């Protein structure tokens, strides 16, 4: 019988891709961890909310973090890798990864990706934020002025 460390689990993405990964990778996801503990993995674990592209990035992240019990704030190499990992993502992939890490309940990955979005917003005007994220302004100039007056503190 294979040890827990040698055990492999198949993850099935929403678009039909199969990924065979070690239990050390799967255990970083609270969602998948419970499935493994409940022995619900014999025929693979279907992930209807996660595309193959997103799952590939999740696995890349989890492989890098395998064996690290908790995020180590003094591990400069890992911090640098994490930073490069999210900075190099295009926006659609970043947002898909946020959704995947939320669905899979991978707290450190969710925190990392959400921090990246916060960094993209920090210090920008509403107009710059709309431009960055391709958001259409659906306020009329009058409505926008009213919101600014009612919430002056937010625009200081």
DSSP strand (E) fraction? 5-15%
Helical content class: 40-55%
Number of helices: 8
Order of SSEs, N→C?
EEHHEHHHHHH
- What strand line-up does the widest sheet have? 2-1-3
Main location: nucleus
Protein name: SKP1-like protein
Pathway: Protein modification; protein ubiquitination
Subcellular location: Nucleus
Sum this structure up briefly:
This protein is mainly α.
What does this protein structure show overall?
- Helices cover 54% and strands 8% of the residues.
- With 156 residues, the protein is mostly helical.
- It has one domain: Potassium Channel Kv1.1, Chain A (2-Layer Sandwich).
- Strands 2-1-3 form a three-stranded mixed β-sheet.
- Helix 3 (52-65) packs across helix 5 and helix 5 (91-104) packs antiparallel against helix 6 (107-121).
- The termini are far apart.
- Part of a SCF (SKP1-cullin-F-box) protein ligase complex.
- Residues 107-154 form the SKP1 component dimerisation domain.
- Keywords: Nucleus, Ubl conjugation pathway.
- Residues 7-65 form the SKP1 component POZ domain.
């Amino acid at each position: 019988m294979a040890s827990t460390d040698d055990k492999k689990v198949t993850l099935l993405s929403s678009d039909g891709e199969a990924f065979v990964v070690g239990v050390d990778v799967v255990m970083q996801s609270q969602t998948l961890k419970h499935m493994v503990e409940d022995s619900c993995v014999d025929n693979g674990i279907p992930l209807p909310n996660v595309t193959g592209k997103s799952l590939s990035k999740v696995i890349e992240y989890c492989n890098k973090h395998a064996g690290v019990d908790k995020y180590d704030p003094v591990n400069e190499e890992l911090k640098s890798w994490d930073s490069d990992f999210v900075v190099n993502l295009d926006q659609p992939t970043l947002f898909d990864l946020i959704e995947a890490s939320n669905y899979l309940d991978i707290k450190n990955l969710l925190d990392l990706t959400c921090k990246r979005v916060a960094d993209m917003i920090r210090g920008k005007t509403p107009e710059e934020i709309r431009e960055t994220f391709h958001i259409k302004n659906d306020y009329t100039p009058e409505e926008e002025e009213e919101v600014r007056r009612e919430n002056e503190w937010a625009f200081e």
